Amino acid sequence: MVKEKPPIFGMIQRGGEVILQMLANVKQATIAHEVNSTITPGSLIFTDEYKIYARLITWEYQHKSVCHAQSEYARDEDGNGFYEVHVNTMEGFWSLLRSWLRPHRGISQAKLPLYLGFFEFVHNRSLAN
């Protein structure tokens, strides 16, 4: 993994806090640990189509997803004109993070968690104001 980009896992509550974690891998046990240690069982989780998220139901969460591979980015399930099924909140956050990291080219994997922690802190702190 030394020459590769490490996996970064993020969870965000709509209108709320974000949690970012650099992972050693994207195996089921790793993802399950991150989700179970952060999100209350029974909560509704919105994701993209990544296959590991299909297990959320067996981990006792409600789950709805959009399929980017089929050009689906938001879905109105109840017909009220509000597209409630989407992952745009997290996608927007990733865009902000990439823009902020871009000038810091060549961040070492050893220091990346510090940058992620700082960006997470700044986002979460801004909610308090």
Question: Which percent range fits the helix content?
Answer: 25-40%
Low-pLDDT sequence parts = none
Strand content: 15-25%
Multimeric organization = single chain
Shape: globular
Mean pLDDT: 92
- The secondary structure category is alpha+beta
**H-E order:** EEHEEEEHH
Number of helices: 3
Say how many strands there are: 6
Q: Tell me the span between the first and last alpha carbons.
A: 39 Å
Strand order, biggest sheet?
1-2
**Structural Rg:** 16 Å
Largest sheet: 2 strands, antiparallel
Tell me the layout of helices and strands:
Layout (H helix, E strand, L loop, with lengths): L7 E5 L5 E5 L5 H9 L7 E4 L14 E4 L8 E2 L9 E2 L1 H14 L10 H17 L1
Parallel strand pairs: 3-4
Antiparallel strand pairs: 1-2, 5-6
